[in-house]
Amino acid sequence: MDMMNFVLWFAVGFVFGSIPSGLWLVKAIHGIDIREYGSKNIGSTNVFRTVGGKTAALVLICDAAKGILAVMLADMMSGGDLYVMLFAAIGALLGHNYSLFLGFKGGRGVATGLGLLIFFMPKVSGICFLVWLAIVLATRYVSLGSCVGALCAPCLAVYFGYPLPVIMFAAVAAAFVIIRHKDNIKRLLNGTESKIRQGSAKDLKK
Predict the structure, then answer these.
(1) How far is it, in rounded angstroms, from Cα 108 to Cα 41?
(2) Closest CA to 85 of 163, 26, 182
(3) Cβ atoms of 108 and 177 closer than 8 Å
(4) pLDDT for 152-187, tens place per residue?
(5) Are the beta carbons of 174 and 157 closer than 8 angstroms?
(6) Which tens digit of pLDDT belongs to each residue from 35-51?
(7) Cβ distance 164 to 15 under 8 Å?
């Protein structure tokens, strides 16, 4: 194994993942810094709560796409080396969580993690998304849906018989998501977690 090659693609993935889609898109469309509103997170959930669903959907797509693009590039340049792609994927996930452009702060990894699951495990990603959606619709707790959906990923990867390195990636990605939600988990346990509610850019001007 060429460790320098793995480090290179981890770095490439980290740069792709570091792109702060939520910050840049909300600033371009609405002229505000999303970090000054709501939970101060740059992810699609806080964007949804602050300026509404259309911009949040765009942020979600871009956050998912940046991980996919990093891995697709690694795939093309390495001739399909699975380990190279996985290193790029881990880099992208970490880059989203600890962005180079935000002083190593960032989102919680859900959308970027979903994009990576779509690339490596389409069936798993579809089921995890449905689990997330069902929980959010039933409880209106996005954090709960995200954590349960993340936990499902490695279990489903085992069930569908994916290669061990891909299963391990799913487990690592799930761990990242859950760790990034540790404060939400505490609030869920003590009953103070906020339920999802769509915001509007019009409300910011009042």
Answers:
(1) 8
(2) 163
(3) yes
(4) 999 999 999 999 999 999 999 999 999 999 999 999
(5) no
(6) 999 888 999 999 999 99
(7) no
